[in-house]
């Protein structure tokens, strides 16, 4: 019951955004710009400035990239036997290879593992954002009618401010450049506001999703990969990657997150079967109420 209690405040905040959108018809784009461009870079800066660099950073990068590539390989195999089109294959990759560890996973880790775990979660979020803005955009573009080139993905990378915030924080720490207490307090205030803001935005995003002409086959494949296969692959990684127990637990929990909300945005932007991608985002988020308590309970037995 305690694991369900962890999810209750998270879904209450999601519900606040959902209800707000249904009642007030909020302008989602402006809110997203505030969170993505003005808040999360401060959160990343603080984390990378205050966290000491060690082997865990390499482990988290290997985990994030390896998990995505493993799922993409499985999707290609499944698409081959099922005879899916390029657009359908790319849509399944978008909805299954990229998890929502930003406005869902990071708050969940904070509630479940506290301040010690949140540092790992934010680093994983930054790496995931960079991966989504390269590999994710590439597959969104590949599944579009125009079949845009990889240059499109590279253009997206330079537009992700959270990466710059992380790089600046890491650079100042590496060079031992101090940040004044007053300035750092302002950074903490903005960074602390980022997490509840992105949670509300996810609720708003879910309220905007419309599910029509649902196809059970591709939806089932995507949900199985995202909610079942992904944490199992992460579990396998924990047997080989050198990491402490807390990081291993967070890696598995993050791998069990529902589909990233940004994938819906990319699918709509490039016309890569947005109906399927948005359906998986909504269904996986709802399904996480059942799967995440099981995952959270299971990782408590890790040594």
TrEMBL record:
Intracellular or extracellular location(s): Cell membrane
CC annotations in GO: plasma membrane
Gene3D superfamilies xrefs: 1.20.1530.20
Membrane topology note: Multi-pass membrane protein
InterPro entries named among the record's database cross-references: Mem_transp_PIN-like (IPR004776), Na+/solute_symporter_sf (IPR038770)
Domain of life: Bacteria
One GO BP annotation of this record: transmembrane transport
Ranges that cross the membrane: 29-45, 57-79, 91-113, 120-141, 161-181, 193-211, 223-243, 250-268, 280-299
Main location: membrane
Keyword rRNA processing in record: no
Keywords, comma-separated and alphabetical: Cell membrane, Membrane, Transmembrane, Transmembrane helix, Transport
UniProt family annotation: Belongs to the auxin efflux carrier (TC 2.A.69) family.
Cross-referenced PANTHER family: AUXIN EFFLUX CARRIER FAMILY PROTEIN (PTHR36838), SLR1864 PROTEIN (PTHR36838:SF1)
Name used for this protein in its record: Membrane protein
Organism field: Bacillus infantis NRRL B-14911
